[in-house]
Amino acid sequence: MARRPLAAALILGASALVLTGCLPMPPAAPVLPPTSGPTEPTESSDPAEPGTTDAPTESSEPSASSEPSEPSEPSDGAFDFTVDDGAGDTWSFTVTGVEDNPPMDSGSPEPGTYFVGILFDGEHVEGTADFDTCFDFFVVGSDGVEYDWRDTIGVTAQDDIFFADSNAFTQARAAVQLPEGVEPDQVIVRTRFGPGEEIVLDVE
């Protein structure tokens, strides 16, 4: 069975990153430094008097903080996304792949259609609601139409997401039905409650 990798992820509603550049400072005029010179050493002597050994220890404390380890933790973790559904549940998860004609425990695609399987790994961070209760799953086809996993809830894939453990799971599968000849272009994971966050992944 063919498995397609997933490309760049987009979380709608997330804050944008602002990139700032460094501009060179203009050279100071030769007349200004002598006038400001006597005042600057007096100001620097003021902080030098209260500047006891506590000052260097304070500067050393932030350098020893765990901030540099925090960005390394998500990169070392198994999950790409952590999403609060806005209704009391938070899940960390990764879409690990998309496959044609996934293995099924029961049911078959309607004539002129076929199944696409979305594979998930997930871990419950907070709350009690199941993953499929908090989120809905869609495949956007090459025809531009969104196909909903809940349209095929009457069939059961192997390791179906409907029966996934409420605490953590690996390779849980959501089967979505597409018309024959329509290829999966995107996977959408959308919260069913709260502000309506969604994650969009391109299928290569």
Descriptive notes:
There is one protein chain. By secondary structure, the chain is of the alpha+beta class. It is about 20% helix and about 40% strand. Strand 11 (about 185-190) and strand 12 (about 200-204) form a beta hairpin. It is globular. About 20% of the residues are buried. The model is unreliable at about 10-75 (pLDDT under 50). Keywords: Signal.
Strand content: 35-45%
Major sheet: size, sense and barrel closure?
A: 5 strands, antiparallel
Task: Give helix and strand order, one letter per element, not per position.
Answer: EEHHHHEEEEHEEEEEE
Choose one word for the global shape. Answer: globular
Strand runs, count: 12
From the alpha-carbon coordinates, what is the Rg to the nearest angstrom? 27 Å
Low-confidence stretches: 8-76
Secondary-structure-based class equals: alpha+beta
Mean pLDDT: 75
The separation of the N and C termini measures 16 Å
> What share of the residues lie within helices?
10-25%
SS field, number of helical segments: 5
List keywords for this structure.
single chain; 204 residues; alpha+beta; five-stranded antiparallel β-sheet; signal
Task: Break the fold down into its secondary structure elements and pairings.
Layout lengths: L2 E2 L1 E6 L20 H5 L2 H10 L5 H10 L5 H8 L4 E4 L5 E11 L3 E3 L6 E14 L4 H4 E7 L4 E3 L7 E2 L10 E12 L4 E8 L6 E6 L1
Antiparallel strand pairs: 1-4, 2-12, 3-4, 4-6, 5-9, 6-10, 7-8, 7-11, 11-12
